[in-house]
Amino acid sequence: MISGSLLISLANIISLVLTLYFYAILIRALLSWVNPDPYNPVVRFIVRITEPVLGPFRRLIPPISGFDISPIVALLVIEFGKNLLVRWLYSMAGPGLT
């Protein structure tokens, strides 16, 4: 069986990665309001890392009155998944180790 401290470390790393991804999607949503230069390397990086998640959400959820709510839904799914997965890993680590 995997040791408790390894599971806690894994849970912390997953939490950090999902939090960073959450902020990347949030930044992309905010960038869409100001229409930045699409050739800016930072903008291209943000679009490149967030499109694999936002693309499928856009195909499933049509715009409402011209407003794209896919980033909001993606953020909610990321937070829900993060909380569920991290809590599960903490519980698998064993009592008293969290």
From TrEMBL:
Key words of the record: Membrane, Transmembrane, Transmembrane helix
Pfam family, one: CCB3_YggT
InterPro entries assigned to the protein according to its UniProt record, in alphabetical order: CCB3/YggT
Coiled-coil stretches noted in the UniProt entry, renumbered to this chain: none
Membrane-spanning residues: 7-31, 60-78
Family that this chain belongs to: Belongs to the YggT family.
Protein name: YggT family protein
Species for this entry: Thermithiobacillus plumbiphilus
